[in-house]
Amino acid sequence: MQYATIISMVFLVCWGAFFLTWIGGALYNALKGPKVLRRRVGSWRWWLIGIIGILMIRFEMNSTTYIHAASWSTLTFSVSELQIVGAILLIVGTLFTLWSRLVLGTMCSSVATVKSDHQLRTTGPYRITRHPIYTGILGMLAGTTLVYFVALPVLVVSVAIFLRKIADEERLMVEQFGEQYMEYKNRVPQLIPGLYLKRQRKDS
Questions:
Q1: What architecture is domain 3-203?
Q2: Which of 1, 29, 76, 95 could form a disulfide with 33 if both were Cys (CB 3.0 to 4.6 A apart)?
Q3: pTM for the full predicted model
Q4: Domain boundaries, the chain
């Protein structure tokens, strides 16, 4: 079996597992999850803006009026080593994302919410970053981009959307948990694992 076929299978299995887990989790939370007490409205607008942004970038990339298609083909990653690295990153990102989703359990939501008997998760992947699901998804998208360069617009737009969502979520968590969340925020990096550790080493 050629490596390209293996990489394609990795892509399908990883993203298939991601979507099945999210669909199953959403259905379970809808039936068994705790009641939503507070919700940040308007998050859907950022997803809509993101989708429009992706479509516009893809149109620009494919447009023969502004950019000849041949110029983009030179940017396509065809080096096997990069694709292998991308596949490994995709696998690691998927495992990290699914682990984070499992630990978050019924507290998971597509928008910033406070639920009945809301619990602040600080263990497992939440000791590595404050938003490990986003960290994992961005890792999956970065790996996918190394394999299929056409995924780059999705990665770029996702970074922008996640940063906006993180701001909403953290404001809500500070309002809900106060000093407990501030202490957690000062101790654990936002998205990049080990970022605070590197900063502490530099300061010491």
A1: Up-down Bundle (1.20)
A2: 29
A3: 0.79
A4: 3-203
